[in-house]
Amino acid sequence: MQKRSNTSTNLFKLSMLSGAALLTILPSAVMAQAAPADDDQSRDGEISTSNEIVVQGQITYRNRSEAVEPVLVYDADYFQRFEPLTAGDALKRVPSVTFLSDVIESDGARLRGLEPGYTQILINGEKVPGSNADRSFFLDRIPAELIKQVEIIRSSSARRTGDAVAGTLNIVLRDGYQLEGGYVRMGVLRFDDGEVKPSLGLVYGGALGPGRILIGGNIQGRYNPKLKKSLRFGDSPENNPNFETDDFDNREDQTDTRDGTDYAFNATYDIDGETTDFELSGYYVRTDRIEDERSFEYDDPTALTGPVRTTPVAGNLLTDNANFNSIKQESYSIASKLEQEWSAGVTKLKVGYSRFSDKQDETEFEIDFDRSTPRFTGDLTDLDIVDKELSVGLEHVFKLGADIELAIGGFAQNKDRDTSILSIRDRFNLTAADRAYDQFGRNPEEFARPFGVPLFTPGSLNTIEEDRRDLFAEVEGKSGSLSWVAGVRYETTDFAINDLTVPAASAVQENDYSFLLPSASVKIEVGSGGRITASAARTNRRPRLDFLSPALLEAELGDNDLLGNPALRPETSWGGDLGYEQRLGRTGVIGVNLFYRKIKDLIEVANTGVEGSEGPGTFVLQPRNTGDGEVYGIEFDLSTDLGFLGLPDTGVFGNLSFLDSDITDFGGTRRFNGQSKYVYNAGFIQDIPSAGVAFGATYRKQGGAFDRIVGEEITTTYGADLEIFIEKRFGNRLTIRAVGSNLLNGSKDEVFNKFNTIDEQLDRDFDEFELETEEAGPVFQIMARYAF
């Protein structure tokens, strides 16, 4: 471990020296050469005024990226009229992004339907840490009001890290060279149960000294009241067509309310000089959230009787459960960039630091009446995860000719992750006086006693250090209608985990691996406004962090034990994209894209052959690199006005993706876990300039998904989502919008097949068959923006 500590120290010193270099060069080079503060030209075009952002003069369509790689770009104006709350909400309207989140939530983006860990999430082009074990970052952490644009990068490039099997989602935040003036956003959201939540935001951009500054803040009330119902059976319809009457076990009714507030702040300071550019940026997001669940189990499919009686009666309450979780999450990132143009080319230096913390205090109290003497059980779990990343990137671009450039560079990143999960259980029988329990007037929490000292269970206390060192080279050129880019990236990783819940001899585990990741893309302009793109790249997906712990978790998968594997290596993928897009009229574009990925060294849970802790028929299972898989599909998207029909103020947009895959596991062939068969959305916006009014609607639907792991199989289907808005503009400073979302009372329906052992799963000998439905009602917003 000493070697790794020294490595981390050296990178920290390098980062500090790099930061010092930035500050040294800044006054002598940047400030002396800075453009005048009133210069209207930004690095991406003209600066927008706050009036233009608040009062949109025209409908905004998908941008047509000039990058050689296949990239789809959507400015914030594309989403703004439907008032998305988060980056995840905004991404519901772009191609091939699915979610398996709770109803009316959009957190873990699944590009091409694959698990969130297969998608690389960037903010301003940089990686960010999250608390999720699969290394993914939940996009509901970023308020939509901070976003300048969203980029879907379908294929990889040598200039970015290779953790992008499915592709990359880059969330670009506003900077100082994109806004002149300020605006305030105020409004309220009303939910189905009558709860009202506020929304308040402020953004300002303007000149400051030799450069420009942008600051933004946002306070957003978050709320999600859901109703769940589960029916559980001892067998399934595949074994017994009359299972609903013959094998009924219990029914669970649950209320599940998520109530919280998000606080966000971002700021940038930019100086664009004649030969030197400098940027200092940062963002901060905090979430305070309460998850409150109350559930009742009954022994009747429909009855709502109570209180519980001491003698069996149809419709008796079986269990009463109260689950309460207090969540506090904080994430922030600070980054500095320096770009210097020399006689030999352009040098870019980046230094960044990101931190994510997740603290959760959860209690679960349950009374079990389905026994001779009712029993109370109380569980306490305290979770504390801190993930920190420090990175330095250096790149130099040479001109090899009039239309050819060579970029070479390196990237270093140190990741430190600390996990602490404390838990304890209390259990006792209720007294005779408490047995006449009325579930409508009492709560299991009233029986709770003070907990003792919580303990660490296997795998719940560990530290992880992961050091990356990458080198890359990339050549980009253009010749007539042909543009191309080709490069290679060499990634090396040193990994160490110290699990303090296992014997000292196996507590510290180390691993290292390296990969050569070539990539290439071509773009050919054809005809009038046509474009063909083709890309190929090798990418990888790093192992889940919870799979890397050497701890043994008893009865984790059904009755089977799960043993972690620190020797896991990343999955690797060769893939390609082939697309065509055509410009339509003045603003429109239509596109089609085929994609394919061949993924090797898949991480799947395998049987070690060792008997499990539950005795004969159970086993110790372990994640291992085994087998291959394929992912493929076709994506369509359209975004255009209807000027060719004489309707220039009518905009239509939509996309449709068919997604498929093949993988072989212990149970046979299946799709990749959680991959929806399709996803589509369509909508329109109608502007009435003479009245200063606009209205529109979007409709979204994604297909069913299937998951299979040892001990459980899940089939998930979603209902459709309909959103409608209407806006009124007042002059050139004020816009008021009314938005209705989830207007079809969206539902999430899941079918669970549960088994105790692998043999029982293969033989279809069910431990339990469950049908679960989760539903939430409409959400209405009134939002006003005022420019100043």
UniProtKB/TrEMBL annotation:
Q: Where are the residues of the annotated region Disordered?
A: 230-260
Chief location bin: membrane
One GO cellular component term noted in the UniProt record for this chain:
cell outer membrane
Q: Which Pfam families match?
A: Plug (PF07715), TonB_dep_Rec_b-barrel (PF00593)
| Subcellular location, record wording | Cell outer membrane
Question: Keyword Signal: yes or no?
Answer: yes
Query: What is the name attached to this protein's record?
Result: TonB-dependent receptor
